[in-house]
Prior knowledge:
The complex is a heterodimer.
Chain A: H1 2-16, H2 60-70, H3 72-79, H4 81-88, H5 93-123, E1 126-134, E2 137-143, H6 152-163, E3 167-171, E4 177-182, H7 186-195, E5 208-213
Parallel strand pairs in A: 1-5
Antiparallel strand pairs in A: 1-2, 2-4, 3-4
Helix pairs in contact in A: 2-3, 3-4
Chain B: H1 7-10, E1 11-16, H2 19-32, H3 37-43, E2 51-55, E3 59-64, E4 67-73, E5 78-80, H4 82-87, E6 94-97, H5 99-105, E7 111-112, H6 113-117, E8 135-140, E9 148-152, H7 156-162, E10 166-173, H8 177-180
Parallel strand pairs in B: 6-8
Antiparallel strand pairs in B: 1-2, 2-3, 3-4, 4-5, 7-10, 8-9, 9-10
Amino acid sequence: MGAKKNRDKNTNAAAAAEGTTEASAEQQGPPPPEPKPPVEVLYCAVCSFPPEYCEFGSSLTKCKEWLQETHPDLFQKYYSDEALQAKIGTLSLEAQSKLEKDVAKKEAKADAKADAALKKKLSSQITIKRIERNKRKHVTAIHGLEAFNIDLKKAAKQFASKFATGASVTKNPQGQDEIVIQGDVSDEVLEMIEEEVGILKGIPADNVEIVEDKKKKPAD
Amino acid sequence: MFKKFSTSTDIAGQTPVKSSVQRSLRAAVLAQWKIEPETLDVIWPKKEGLVHVKCREHISIYTVHGEPIFFQHFDGPIYPTLRVLHKYPYILPLVRIDRGAIRFLLAGAHMMCPGLTSAGGYLPPSEEALAADTPVAIHAEGKEHAVGVGISKMSSEEMRKVNKGVGVETVTYLGDDLWALQTI
């Protein structure tokens, strides 16, 4: 995605340059009054580096796949046998193997990290808490939505317009952000999460629990 | 400088820059970079307001349409961001490091002299020697695009003579948090 965005940007810049032709890196146009066109740089969609630096990133295998699919000519340039030979040229064999080992290690590490993040995401809980304000008035606090990459501000706005009440993002005493909605809407919120309304997407319903927080013992 | 940088904790505020200040900034950029006024106008159009993003430790990032263009530490030299440098690679003097140093650079290390003076490295010839404390584009052996932006800690002649210790201090590099930050 990053690459595409950048390409867009580049074309915009080129358009702004009015009539200058697209030029390669080496060509440094001499005419002073004309702005020099920017060098078009392709960025890897996987690791956001220029593809020649993918080998130092933490997702080389995926980068390679991506490059082979989208830019086979460049893939030939960077990963063909001759290119690999040329790269080894100036470096001692030892250093080269060390570098490769390093990259493999890095890759494994990044994979493990991504796995752990995913696991954490899957196991993180969302609590919908009904808090009693006085006898018959409640507020609903939703905690833990940010673990699922949901913009809390937008979610609060969505709740506010859906329930026609106030909803805000506040810090709870532990210093974490949560959404506080006026009124007792815990069941409706649960329903919304299950139906994935609006921006509330990708939340497993099993991870949602409703708790009650009361000042006194409930009447029932 | 940007090894660890997050928008939520490290940014103190954003303010549009006054046009008089913009004028002096523009003059400073033109004086410090090897860039024509016309080309600068493409990166930073005159009509578009520049936004000053104030960060911790006296770092100022300047953005156009939320896209970082250049940054400055305190009132030191003005560095382009790596993405701008990729598009206009000639605006800063070039040094090159050998292949062995790339992985250290990508971990945020400063560049030691031997990596610049060895066979794979490149320093400007003595006719156009690099002075100390100049922003430089750090390229890498066998690579087309710059891998980082740095500031020379000693002159290029000195680097050749001493051949020891930090030659170029890395300011921003490929894959650091400023790189990850495409828009503010």
